Structures are given as C-alpha cells and as structure tokens.
C-alpha cells in the first residue's frame, strides 16, 4: 500500500515537470458546443488536481468568461503591449481565476481589438503557458481560421466536435479531410455532441460517414446545459451525477491516463547518450566491421 502511495506521488511530481498538453476544441460550424466543452472539461481536469488554463480563442466574440461567470480585468489584448518584456510571472497577472482553480486567458472585450492578436502574440503566450500548466484547453473559433490553425498545429490533441445534423456532418467530414492534408489527422478525436437527439443520421452511421473509428458520444441534456450556461456554473461542478457530467469526467479520465502513460514511457526511456558514449559506441561498431 505504501508503495502504491509513493508511486502515485512520484507520478504526480513527474507530471508537474512535464510540458503541458494543449487540447484544441474545434468544430466546423458555430453553436456545436465548443464553449460548453471547454469550460466543463477544464473544470473536470481541475477536479483531478491538474493545473488548467482555458484560452478563449474566439477573439472577436468570445464568451468563455461569461459562461464561467467571471469578469476579467485583463484580456489577451493587454498582453500585446507587454509582449517584449513579458515572462511567466507577468503573464500570470493577465489571467482570471475561476473558483474551480482553472485560470482563464480572456478574449478582448470588444471585437475591434481582435486584430491586435497575431500569431506572434500567440506564440509568446503559448511558450509561457505551456510550462506552467498541465493542460491548456483552447476554445477555438469555428472553422479553419488562421489563428485557430496556430492552436491546431501546436496542440497535442484536437477535439473535433460535431452533431448529427446533416450540414454539420458534411462540414465535419471536410474539416477532417483538411486536417489530413495538413498532416494533423493523427491528433484528431471526433466527439458527437447532443448524440441522443433524434436525427436522420444515427450514431451508428457516424464512423462510416466520417471514416473514423473511436468516436466519443456526449448526450443531449438541453435543460441542464442551458441552465448551467445562464447561471455561469459548469455542470461538472454542481451536477456531477448526471449522464452529461459523467461523460465529461470520462473524457478527463482518458486524457489523464494518456498523460500518465506518456510520463511513464518517458521515465523508462534510457538516458540519452553523452557525446563520449556515442563516440565509444561508434568505435565499437567500426571495430565489429573490421
Ligand atoms: N450536450 C449538450 N446537450 C444539450 N445542449 C447542448 C449540449 N452542449 C451544448 N449545448 C447547447 O448548444 C448551444 C451551443 O453551445 P456552445 O458551447 O455555445 O457552442 P459553440 O461554442 O460551439 O458555439 C448552447 O445553446 C448550448 O446550451
Ligand atoms: Mg462558443
């Protein structure tokens, strides 16, 4: 028993030293559930003692703060003037804290400020955040906008949300094809949101339509979600026993076990060869040839 506790503690320590994982929450169309997913997944991970930062990637009309009922003093726009001298401590001042422990990098307060956010801003912010958090959860803009592509390329996993709606499904398929062209398809995981809704397309049809296995289904619970969004309390916080919250805990659990697997594999890897060792080994190889 003591051994298990020690191992768990060591795994947690190792996890703190690992670079954070970035999850880009994407969808082809708007209104699919990216913001609901970003907020609830972030809180579900924070409940597991993870250090989580939620980034609102909808730089014109972001509503992440609203859906978590927090009022930001600063937004990503304010980091722009500080960019050259910014370090992880100054950046921390620009984040908003949620009661769950999740930190949020808010989107600009007005749509006209969105153009101040460029890829070089994102590059700097990403570099500083990725070493401070276990997870960066990005609520990206719908479709394949330039700035969303930055997050997509840098992400460790892409969560592509769809619904069973015909148009959404067609666009999701095109988005998947584009991810393939961009060399990003390996990272994609498809999630069917509101999957219990009655539709011409059935859940069983989805793998065939999208030519993808390993699809995660999230149930439709409109009342719970609407109420949670209106009061700004993520349902995983106060309705943890519902099917919807359970689906989110499951996703968080899968992410966590994947992260632990990576940490264990990295720890088991033999230490990389020193220059001297490499020369010695090359010498041995050369001798065995002659
Ligand atoms: N699992 C769900 N069950 C029922 N309604 C949902 C679910 N997820 C999201 N919604 C609803 O879908 C709508 C869009 O969600 P939102 O997260 O704002 O989408 P997006 O950020 O992709 O534009 C909201 O009205 C929300 O209440
Ligand atoms: Mg949204």
Class derived from helix and strand content: alpha/beta
Element string (H = helix, E = strand): HEHEHHHEEHEHEHEHEHHHH
Total number of strands: 8
Shape: globular
Helix content: 40-55%
- The total count of helices amounts to 13
Largest sheet: 8 strands, mixed
* CATH topology heading: Rossmann fold
List keywords for this structure.
290 residues; alpha/beta; Rossmann fold; disordered C terminus; binds adenosine-5'-diphosphate; binds magnesium ion
What does this structure look like?
The protein is α/β, with parallel strands linked by helices. The chain has a single domain, classed as Rossmann fold (3-Layer(aba) Sandwich), CATH 3.40.50.300. Helices cover 49% and strands 12% of the residues. The chain has an eight-stranded mixed beta sheet, with helices on both faces. The longest helix is centred in the last third of the chain and has 26 residues, at 243-268. The termini are far apart. The structure holds adenosine-5'-diphosphate (ADP) and magnesium ion. Adenosine-5'-diphosphate is lined by residues 27, 30-36, 193-194, 218, 220-222, 225-226, 229, 244. Adenosine-5'-diphosphate binds next to helix 2 and helix 10.
């Amino acid at each position: 028993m003591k051994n298990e506790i020690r191992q768990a503690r060591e795994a947690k320590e190792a996890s703190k030293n690992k670079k954070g994982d970035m999850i880009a929450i994407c969808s082809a169309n708007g209104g699919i559930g990216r913001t609901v997913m970003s907020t609830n997944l972030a809180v579900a991970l924070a409940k597991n003692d993870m250090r989580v930062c939620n980034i609102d990637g909808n730089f014109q009309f972001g509503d992440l703060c609203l859906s978590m009922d927090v009022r930001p003093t600063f937004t990503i726009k304010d980091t722009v003037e500080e960019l050259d001298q910014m370090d992880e401590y100054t950046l921390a001042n620009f984040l908003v804290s949620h009661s769950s422990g999740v930190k949020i990098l808010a989107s600009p307060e007005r749509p006209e400020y969105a153009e101040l956010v460029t890829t070089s801003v994102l590059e700097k912010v990403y570099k500083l955040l990725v070493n401070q958090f276990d997870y960066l959860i990005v609520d990206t803009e719908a479709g394949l906008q330039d700035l969303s592509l930055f997050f997509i390329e840098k992400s460790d996993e892409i969560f592509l949300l769809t619904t069973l709606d015909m148009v959404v499904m067609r666009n999701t398929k095109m988005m998947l094809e584009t991810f393939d062209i961009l060399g990003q398809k390996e990272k994609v995981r498809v999630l069917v949101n509101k999957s219990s809704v009655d539709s011409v397309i059935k859940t069983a049809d989805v793998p065939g339509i999208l030519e993808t296995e390993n699809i995660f289904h999230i149930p439709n619970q409109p009342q719970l979600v609407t109420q949670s969004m209106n009061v700004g309390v993520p349902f995983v916080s106060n309705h943890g026993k519902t099917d919807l919250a359970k689906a989110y805990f499951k996703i968080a659990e899968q992410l966590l076990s994947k992260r632990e697997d990576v940490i264990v594999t990295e720890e088991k890897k033999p230490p990389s060869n020193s220059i001297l060792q490499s020369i010695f080994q090359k010498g041995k190889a050369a001798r065995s040839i002659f």
